[in-house]
Amino acid sequence: MLKKLGLCFMLLSTSVFAQEKMVIGQTEIMTVAEAGLSFEARIDTGAANTSMHAVDLKVIGGSAKKMQDNVGKMLSFTTENERGEKKQLKAKIVKTSTVSNSQGRETRYMVELNVAFGKHKRKVKVNLRDRSHMDYKLLIGRNWLADDFLVDVAEKRIIGPVAAISVRESGLIFQTRIDTGAVENSLHATDLKVENGDEDMENNIGKQLSFTTENEKGEKQRLHAMITNTSLIRNAQGSEIRYMVELNIGEPGREYPVKVNLKDRSKMTHKLLIGRNWLQGHYLVDVSLKEND
């Protein structure tokens, strides 16, 4: 009986302790105060330290041969987020860090920066490396997460039946219909022109396509994208073949690459329709939410 009571108390204590921590998803929008930039960051419990994209590293006043001998000196570097926004920073080198990965071992400079998730800001040591070939320019490690956060890799966001969605390449925001009945995303597109186009749509896969899109406010933009494939769409009016391209689509600041078919939606209320290929694994749809929720 005592063992059972002890076990119950231990489980209850663990539960209460866990509830005091904030749940964070596998990717989140984080800000680096010194840069004045927001990043779509990868939350990585496998990494001991936080890591940020940095290029053009220069030790102010001259660099010693050994990186360790530069600790305490000021370092200038340039960082950049996923939207291509750049900022040059200066920070004191507080230590060096040797990191082992699939490419081998490398030594990186570490600086202290204020990294925030919403109102939760922490000053932590951040190692600097060229992450230009990586999807995420900021990686959040255990030194930022420790004591206050739980990571839920299955975490999904909730979205209503209509939402403000960005198509990053266009710079436009669309009042978008969220449609779980649609397999694919569909974007309003007119005046489609294929570079060196063929009459057979299948033969145009891999070629560049230009088209004009327009949101519900009448704001227009001419876009260029590669045709990734074609899609046969069946609806009440019959069937049609549409070109598909890959664009970065999502809530502003949370866009990610996804395939979208192109169609003249000028007679439709919503110029962008989001289907299951965008929602899957990322969102739950609550049809009771209002457009502005």
From TrEMBL:
SUPFAM superfamilies linked: Acid proteases (SSF50630)
UniProt keywords, alphabetically: Signal
Top-level taxonomic group: Bacteria
Keyword 4Fe-4S found: no
Position of the signal peptide: 1-18
Retropepsin-like aspartic endopeptidase domain: residues covered: 23-159, 168-291
Pfam entry (one): Zn_protease
Record protein name field: Retropepsin-like aspartic endopeptidase domain-containing protein
